[in-house]
Amino acid sequence: MIQTIDWGLIEYNEAWNKQEAIFRATIQLKTDGKQTENTLIFCEHPHVYTLGKSGDEHNLLLNYIQLQAADAQFVKSNRGGDITYHGPGQIVGYPIFDLANFNLGLKQYIFLMEEAIIYTLQAYGIQSERLDGATGVWLDTGKPTCRKICAIGVRSSKFVTMHGFALNVNTNLTYFGHINPCGYVDKGVTSLEKELGRKLEMQEVKKHLIDNFNKLFVTK
């Protein structure tokens, strides 16, 4: 069973601290041999660029003064992956799952998270896929128009996960112009709004995500 929490608009570091508390508590329960829960957290962040632990700071194309002018923060995170942007209009999902509850390894977990995004996009008539050698969900792979619609970066310890995905729904994509998204200089970024030509109801998209996570992640 997956429980869902919605933190609404929340500053990145505050959400990170709250995640860490749930993450550590879940690991402690597991260490004590007790039953663990699986929690899918939704939120949005004020403008922030986050860098994964193996990322390159040079992929941020702004200096400190320019960051302030853009009303954005820069945070070094302990998730995997390179640099990405979070902001209003983007659904950020933080699954804090005990993968033992699903009999999954980390690669299978990331595959199923991508699958949940792919199914959600299908509900809006958008065909998406994976890109070889990269995490996340993409459109038009193998073409010059290849573009990312969802970034993924996770952390795990004792097969408990945190961090997760960032799905561009009504996101202001101009903020991606200040970075090399996920370290790529030759790939574009898109959103549901851009692909469909209209804004979407965030709660409706979240409902699709919840349904697809529950469909794909079946507890053992």
Can you tell me about this structure?
This protein has a single domain (2-216), classed as Bira Bifunctional Protein, Domain 2 (BirA Bifunctional Protein, domain 2, 2-Layer Sandwich). Helix 3 (106-122) crosses helix 5. The relative contact order is 0.19. It is of the alpha/beta class and 220 residues long. A hairpin with a 2-residue loop joins strand 9 (147-157) and strand 10. The strands form two sheets. Strands 1, 2, 6, 7, 8, 9, 10 and 11 form an eight-stranded mixed sheet that branches. The chain has a three-stranded mixed sheet with strand order 4-3-5, with no helix packed on it. The protein has helices at 12-31, 64-69, 106-122, 192-196, 202-216, and strands at 2-9, 38-44, 48-51, 73-76, 83-86, 90-96, 129-131, 134-139, 147-157, 160-168, 188-189. The chain contains five helices and eleven strands; from the N terminus they run βαββαβββαβββββαα.
